[in-house]
Fold this protein.
Amino acid sequence: MSERQFYIDPSRCIGCNACVAACAECDTHAGVSMIHLETIEREDSVQTTPVICMHCEEPACAMVCPSDAIKRTPDGVVQTSLKPRCIGCTNCVYACPFGVPKYEAAIDQMMKCDMCYDRTSVGKKPMCATVCPSQALMYGTPEEIAEQRSGTPINEFVFGSRTIRTKVNLMVPQGQKRLEVKAGATIRRSDLLTSSRLG
Amino acid sequence: MDERLREDFPIDWEEDGYVSRREFFKFMTVASGGLALGSLGLAAWSRGRREGISFEPKRIARLDALAPGSSLAFNFPRETDICLLVRRPDGALSAFSRRCTHLSCPVDYQADKDRLYCPCHNGAFSAEDGSVLQGPPPHPLPAITLEVRDGEVWATGVRHAKVRS
């Protein structure tokens, strides 16, 4: 049996917020959730997807950190910012292509999902994956995924000229190898303030 | 990304705590060099700092009010520094800090033995130069330099005897 991995399956997300609540219950960051739900097409659909840290191989958040506060563990988990180092500049918040880091103004520190490092480093599932009723967040082996799901897991994302590989997998329809994110395509008509609307 | 920058500020946890041999020796050299320079500076400072300190002279008593074989307590140079003025049986004047150099008990003058005696641990100092006669005190008593002006005794300064090594 191979090592367990993290899988996000947006098509399974029912928007119950159980993962958000479970994350906020953790004693190491009590009351603050490091995970959030994103609506996909808010105008047309109630479909949501959980957003957790993808743990990039080349983490943009750590690359842009001016105070050297974001570190990656030997097993590839990008940690939340180190409290003594973080200066709350929010560089990482702007740099992350997945919109994961969140600046907590109350403590002047960036906090992000660290894949429940206290749990996963000792072989337990992350809290969100434990509570997710539809298993949109799934922590298991590739064999389990292949057996139970129809989609394919990918961990390669293309942002313009830059390809980003991640530790966390995203479930996409069968046959896709990577996800190409086109900045222009993500801007919807409803996002733009048209002149008719202004008038 | 700047290679040198990534070397100094690595993203990976393990490399972040890694100290290379070169860094280690650089740190050791700078730290021990700094300590050595600091100790040299301190030594120079403590050697030189007692020179050239002047005290405000202070009138203690009239000379004719002191009978031979008597003593008088006074404070010099600060109000918290206790001292003892001694008129020895032969009429000579001397003054010392009253704090025993062992554990700072106040010493008393014993006229019959012409010495300064500390009752705490049976220590005694010479009334002539403050040197240790007996007991545990490690150093002589600091002496107060005196001057007689128009029949009055003035304290003018503090003299530390050479500490035997």
